[in-house]
Amino acid sequence: MVEKTSAIVLHQVKYSDSGIIVQVYSRKFGRVSIMVKGMRNRKSGKHNVHFQPLSILDLVVYYKESRGIQTLKEFSVSYSTDDIQGNLRKSCMAIFIGEVLTSVLKEESPHEELFEFLRDSIIYFNECQERFLNFHIAFLTGLSSYMGFEPGRRPGEEYSVFDMINGSFVQIPPVHGNYATQEVSGILASFFQSSWHEMENISLTGSQRNEVLETFLRYYSLHLPGIKKINSLEVLKEVFR
Fold this sequence. Notes:
The protein is an alpha+beta fold. Helices cover 38% and strands 22% of the residues. The chain has a domain at 130-241. It has eight helices and seven strands. The radius of gyration is 19 Å and the shape is globular.
């Protein structure tokens, strides 16, 4: 059956001499794998830029629910993410976010609100001309609410430790040992209570940003035990150190 859907590209891998398999999160079907034929040959290869992480596309696919990999019939660009793809720092961040989403979004039914969150976040990121260095942390903060473990806000400054098991701020480090340092806890508290625009103004050094990111990924891994190692993390840390 031929189906139409909007989709966000998460990741791609080579398939045969000329094709690729693209992981996308679609509005209509949730996460699906799609075979794109001829994308690595000379004639069609120029279109491969449209299948980079966080690209937003309108797809026409030959879809069969029982099939593990669907086949692309045609596509068009739903929203151009040229600024993400043309900016080294943004493109590295996009690869990281795409890898995280590939790991945490399992083969599941569609989720309209999650799709809209992803789409709106990508558009915001693409249109940010500066002060986007905290975007990936802000994005993980927002995504956690859709994953079912949104952290609570800090009741007061005396609650100086973030308990990663319970997703809350406490006054005394918990005995289970899964908690953030006071410095990182304070930074996380700022993210958890800020809007997108306010998060842009959270001033961090490169080492602080990397420590906060590593802590938040650990928080994710505690609540999503099957999450894979994020290989692009080290590259991202080098770019933003």
